[in-house]
Write a structure and sequence with these properties.
This protein is α+β, with helices and mostly antiparallel strands and 453 residues long. The chain is 36% helix and 26% strand. The protein folds into 2 domains: 297 residues, Rossmann fold (3-Layer(aba) Sandwich), CATH 3.40.50.1760; 68 residues, Dna Ligase, domain 1 (2-Layer Sandwich), CATH 3.30.1490. The chain contains 16 helices and 24 strands. The strands form 7 sheets. Strands 4, 5, 20, 21, 22 and 23 form a 6-stranded antiparallel beta sheet that branches.
Amino acid sequence: MRAGAIAEYHELLAADESLTPEFFARLKDLMSARRMVYGDRHIGVALRPYLLTREQYDRLTFAAQTLARAFEKVGTALLSDPALLDRVGLTEMERRLALVNPGFASSAVTTRLDAFVSGEAIRFVEYNAENPSSLLDQSELNHVLFEVRALCGIAERYRLSQPDPTERLLRALLATYAEWGGAGNPNVAIVDWPGLPTENEFILIRNYFVARGVPTIICTPDELEYDGDSLRRGDFRIDLVYKRVIIHELLARYDESHALMRAYAGGKVCLVNPFRCKILHKKAAFEFLTDEERQSWFTPAEREVLRDCVPWTRRFEERRTSFRGRSIELTEFVRRNRADFVLKPNDDYGGHGVFIGKSSGEAEWDDCISKALAGDYVVQELIELHTEEFPVFDDERWGLQQMYVDVNPFLFRGEMGGALVRLSTSPIVNVTSGGGETGFFVLEERLSTIKQD
């Protein structure tokens, strides 16, 4: 059904004479009006949304939720064993903050898995456990894409559905606040640095929360004040911080005397995600999912998802470890088998510093290994990537182009609620590094197959 729907969509596009430069300008104006921009770039780059069948979406949901539970088990195990906690690469201050009890059970409340889906195959390559961005992008891009006649035509032929991540986010925050011991609706502060490309998203989230009776402000870490009893920004008392500032960037500027960290340590503010989310955000946490010695931590269903969906990963350093049941010397093994591996910073984002062995010559790969050993990196088994044809457009024209696509499930207290879909001509699929996005629908059923009453 999916292939047929996509073929029909492209046929409708090919017959549409309204796809002119003026129309493309109107789409971009709509994206600007709906704040679908990243810095000065419009994030929507395609005339077609990404489509998954209900069966594919349910399979992705099951795998993502199962993996989120496994990650929580990793967090619990590491918090109970300081020697294991050292192995994910926390700094000393990150470690101290991770050991502070946040007042609720989850190490990470709102998260995103980065995945590649091809047919029935699902491969998860990263876990963003630090309050991921782009929650509203798919629903907003879906609105924009309904200006395209082809989408209207497909919606008449197929039943389409879309999840609402923003609604799930609010529910998760309120449930976590109640678990923390709060009563009623909290006063919420969205906290990040000023002038970021994501600031448009903060405005949309604030407006969504306020419209539903949850007082919300946007502020920077510099504006926060703590008097020993409450965290504030001016006259606004803050009950819950929706922390969008990245932890290692915050700790690079402030120590534990900062108002947010003092209020958190004193149990005076509900912080989402809590500082201990850093344990799961470090890419080295993937090692515990794929280490044969740790498989007893997980249920049979979790082990099956780990086996099928998670690539082998190790923190990269001079050491011996295991690879598919055999002992290896890690750096030499990775050196000899460069086409099978990718090196990634243990704690960074935006595709920065990623080295793909398959794209490197022997001497270049040796240099990449040296850089990785001098820093804090993980090595991950390279997964097979597939491209998909998308109708991309610029100011003047559109055309079908093969694009790499990742499908990234949002999770709220471990439950999936929608996904971010990114497109790129590069196998490093990331908006920060120049990629774009498109809308997303679940393809439920062809309407002609539904019996009429």
